[in-house]
Each structure stands twice: as structure tokens, then as C-alpha cells.
Amino acid sequence: MPDTPAAPVILGDVPGSFPHSVLAERHPAIIRQVREALPYGPGQHRALDELLESCTQGVIEPLPEDADDLGRWRAWGLDEYAGRSWFDVPWLWSESYFYRRLLEAVGYFTPGPWQGIDPFRPSKRAELDAPETDEELAALDALRDRPEPERARALLHGSLWGNRADLGFRLSAAGAEAARPVPALVADDTGTLWSLLPPSATGTLVLVADNAGRELVPDLLLIAHLLEAGRIGRAVLHVKPYPYYVSDATTADVVDALRRLTAAPGAAAGYGRVLWSAMADGRLTLRAHPFSCAPLPYADQPGDLRAEFAAATLTVVKGDLNYRRLVGDRLRPPTASFRDATAHFPGPVAALRTLKSDVVTGLTAATEAALVAAEGQRWRTGGTHALIQVNPGP
Ligand SMILES: O=P(O)(O)OC[C@H]1O[C@](O)(CO)[C@@H](O)[C@@H]1O
């Protein structure tokens, strides 16, 4: 039984709260960023003006009648929420719908010259091409001759801390990227995670990706290592079917990251080749399921996805947003059980996440008390703490 079934769903209606600031400040900043990123025409600028007005002072508008995904959004709650303020509906819903509308405004879904053009691509590319990425890739050379458990641990932590590289987050938390990560994890089930992926295993890892660029690259390196070390036989990488939360990874971002790896000097290129051939022979496959951009928790996932996660040896869910969707976007006490909150998940599941929103479960009372004593409530959203939590399943 869940320990706190009535924990309130997070809304964005409390001025001064983190969710409110995302809706009131971050979304307008994202609209400004998108306007400047690409040479849009007057129609696109007008549509962005309308979205800005709607999401800050207006109400949620329905999708156009001819939108391909209208039925899907209706099933996800559009009819219930249309006409209400963006601040008065579940925060997760409001945020997700914002990205859907933003893409609509720039013509992403409309047949024509702007169809499929990712408004966030310039910032994603800049990050992938940055000298810091070269430095991170060069560090792989020193890892090459280390014992396998050490390499596995380093790459797991690379993937975990890569989650700090979130471009939307940086818009409102300047300095979080530069701030030194606090090394001790607030929860650490690493032992359980490795027990599910022993060497010489043949299972399937599903990795539900989060951000592109400097998070996706270490995610791919981790997958390459697990394949090469024989800890898994195959991997399935879930990406978003369309650009989302600024920097979330799409198929195009996977292609960019793989090309970046294979073109790099040293050990990085070797990892790139492992992944390239794993794609070619089917040991690494991509999925871009519509539910990956749904405004709903994973407890509401559709049957086909449920069957896929049920069949996996382990599903690794990356990042803050996926964590919110995994445990439910609710204000539970931080000591609420992670296992109870994820009991709905159909198979073994691990969360790798840096903390960038109020939602958290599975902390000990002592850990929570120490964090509060040191930082007040800032530890929840500052992006400097991280966790590895595992529910090995029933
Ligand atoms: O890229 P991540 O780790 O999912 O983080 C997403 C960010 O966006 C938020 O949803 C707020 O918009 C927070 O959860 C987090 O700061």
C-alpha cells in the first residue's frame, strides 16, 4: 500500500514556489530564447506572442481541430483543462502542454518548410560542440585500463551527474552547472543496481533518456560499456518523439551524439564504434513513444509500454522530470518509501537523478534533517545533489 496516497498533486498556483516560477518566469524566458535562436517569420513571432500572453495571463487553449495528436491530448486531459489558467492545473500537465504549444507556434507540426525544425537545436549543438565535451571525452582515455568495476562505476556516475546538464534548468538557475556537485548521494542503491546487471548476463537494459548533449553522451557511454562488458545483451534507448523541456533528447540528438563520439580521438571513438555496430545489428535500438511526452505519471502508462518495461531486466529512468513522472508529481514527505511510490512500475526500475524540483522520496530522516540544516529547502531544487534509487521489483 502506498504510504501517503493523498499526497497533493503539485500545481503552479503558489506565488514564490518553484513551480510557479517555472510558469511565470522560465516559460517566458524560453519563448524569448526560441525567438532569438532561429530566423522565424512574422507568423511564427505572432504565434509566440499569443502563446506568451496565454501562458502568463490567459487560459489553456485547445489544440487545432486538425492536430494529429488531438485525440491523444484529449485522452490526456485537454478537455478537462482547456479554459483554465495554466497555473491552476497540475504543474506537470501545464509544463508539458507548454512545449506542445511552443512547437505548434513555430510550425514544427505543420507541413511546410519549418516542419520538424527543432527550436532548441542551436543550444543543444553548442553544448555538444563545447570544449568541455572534449575534456570529458578525453578523460575516457585514463579509464581505459582500469578494472571493469571501476570503469562501470565511473560511467554510472558520469551518466548520473550528466543530468546537471539541462539547458532549461540553466535558464533560471545560473551557476548550478558551475556549482560543485555535492559528492555524497542523498540515496544510493548502487549495490542493488549492479546486482541486477552482473557480468556475463544477457538481459535487456531499457534506458529512458533525459537531456541531449552532455547528459546523453555519458548515457551512451554507459550503454556501450554495459554491452561490451557483457552485463547486458541488448539495450533500448527511449528518447522523445519531439523536442521537449528545452534539451530533452530526440533521435536527431542521438545521431549527433554518436557522430560526435565516433569522430573524437582516443577511447571515445572506440565507445562510439561499439554503439554504431550495436545499432547496426539490433543490440541497441531506439524508441520514441508518444507517452514519453505525455503530461502524466508513469503509473498511467499504456499497455504496450508497460509490457516493454515488464520484459526488461532493468529500466533506468534518467533525470528530474522522469523522476517526477516515476514517483508521481506529488508533495510527499521526503522519507516516503521509494519502493511504495514505484510499486506501480511493471519491472525492476532505477532512478538516476540530480534534484531539481521539490519531489523526492526514499530519504532517511537523518539525511533530510542534515540537508535542511545545511540549506533550508534549497537542496530540493538547486541541482547540486543526486540520488541513485532502485526498486528491484516484487
Ligand atoms: O532535465 P531534467 O533533469 O528532467 O530537469 C527538468 C527540469 O525542469 C523542471 O521540470 C522544471 O521545469 C524540473 O523538474 C527540472 O528543473
UniProtKB/TrEMBL annotation:
GO molecular function ontology, one term from the record: phosphatase activity
Q: Which domain of life is it from?
A: Bacteria
Q: Which residues form the Damage-control phosphatase ARMT1-like metal-binding domain?
A: 23-368
Q: Does the keyword Manganese apply?
A: yes
Which chain positions lie within coiled-coil regions? none
Which Gene3D superfamilies does its entry note? 1.20.930.60, Uncharacterised protein PF01937, DUF89, domain 3
Which cofactors go with this protein?
Answer: Mn(2+)
What reaction does this catalyse? beta-D-fructose 6-phosphate = dihydroxyacetone + D-glyceraldehyde 3-phosphate; beta-D-fructose 1-phosphate + H2O = D-fructose + phosphate
- Entries under Pfam families matching the protein: ARMT1-like_dom (PF01937)
| InterPro entries noted in UniProt | ARMT-1-like_metal-bd_sf, ARMT1, ARMT1-like_metal-bd
* UniProt keyword annotation of Metal-binding present: yes
Keywords on this record? Hydrolase, Manganese, Metal-binding
Q: Which GO terms describe its biological process?
A: DNA damage response
Task: Indicate the family of this protein.
Answer: Belongs to the damage-control phosphatase family. Sugar phosphate phosphatase III subfamily.
> What's the protein here called?
Damage-control phosphatase ARMT1-like metal-binding domain-containing protein
